[in-house]
Amino acid sequence: MRWTATYGASTLLLLLTFAAPCVLAQNGQPSATSAGQAPAATNGNSGTVVRAAMRNVEYHLTDRIIVHIVSLDGKLTPKPGQIPVFDDKASFGLDIDTATIILSMAALTNDLNDYVFAKPDAPLKHLDASTQGDQLVMKGLLVSKGGVPFETSGSMSVTPEGMIRVHITEVKALKLPVKGLMDLLGLDTEKLLNTKKVEGVTVDKDDLILDPEKILPPPELHGHLTALKIENGEIHLTFGPANGQAAPLPVTESCVAKNYLHFRGGSVRFGKLTMADTDLELLDSTPADPFDFAIDHYNEQLVAGYSKMTQSGGLCVHLPDYNKVPRHTGRPTTPAPAK
After folding, report:
1. Which of 28, 92, 180, 285 could form a disulfide with 78 if both were Cys (CB 3.0 to 4.6 A apart)?
2. What are phi and psi of 78, to 5 degrees?
3. Measured between alpha carbons, how far is residue 303 from residues 59, 132, 176, 307, 310 in Å?
4. pTM to 2 decimals?
C-alpha cells in the first residue's frame, strides 16, 4: 500500500506520514499531486477495481435521505480516467453485486420531495408515503391540475428487468372523478411524467414504473433488483446477479468489525489524501447499533475518530456515528464594550 499526501490536518495524516512512504515518480522524487486535482486512473494501481463491502450501515445519501444497508458487496465505478473521490459523490457510482437495502417511509417521502419530484415543473408536489399492510400509500398535490389533493394506494413488485412496479389499485382526488392513475394524470401523461421532468419514473397504464438506479441521489447505484417486500412499514430491496450469474467473492473484512464500510484495491481519494492499492475500512466505534455514516460529513467523523494500521499495511479507521458527533456552532462572539 502506498500513499500520496499534500497536506494534512488530522491524526490520520500524521499516521500516514510516519507509517507509509510517498508515491515516487520515475526520477525518484515524490509525485506532485495537486490538492485540487485527482490523479488520472491510469497511474500506477489506479486503474484496478475498487471493491466495496458494507454491513449494517445507516447511509446518509443526503441529510434527509437515509437508507439502511443491511449488507452490500460490489465495486466503485469512477468517471472515465478518474478515481473515486469521497468529497465528490457524483465522481463515482456503486455497482452492486449483491445487497439488501431498507428504505423507510420517512426516507422515501424525503426522496420523492427532495429528489425525484424536486424540479419546479414536476407534476406532483408535497408528497407523503406510508404503508397499509402490503400496500404503498401516496398522498400529495397534483400541481398540473391546480394543486388538487390526491391519494393513491397500490401493490409493489419487481419486473423481470429489475424495475419497481407500483400497481395502483385505488385513486382518490378531491372534486375530480377518477377511475385510475390515467384519469388522475389526464390524457397528457407522457407530457406530465417524462424523463425531462421526472427522471426514473414512467407510467404504464395504471402502474408507476420506478427505476431503482435513478430514483436515489448520488452516488448512483447500478444493480439488478431481484426482490422487494413491504415489512414493518419499510421497503426491503434485494439486489443480486442477473440471469443467475454467480456474484464475485466479497471483500474479506480485516479489522474485526461488525458494522463497516470496506474498500479494497485501486485508488481512492478523500480530503487531501490519495490511497493507492487501497485497503481502507471505516468501522463503527459503537457497534451496538447500526453505523450512522454521512458521506457529506465524513470528515467530521474522521476528526472525531482515530486510526490504526494493520500488519499488511491497511488502515482501520474507527468512527463515531454521525448522529453522535458533537455539532460545532462556532465560537461565541464577545460583546462590544459599552460606549
Report:
1. 92
2. -80, 170
3. 19, 43, 55, 10, 20
4. 0.80
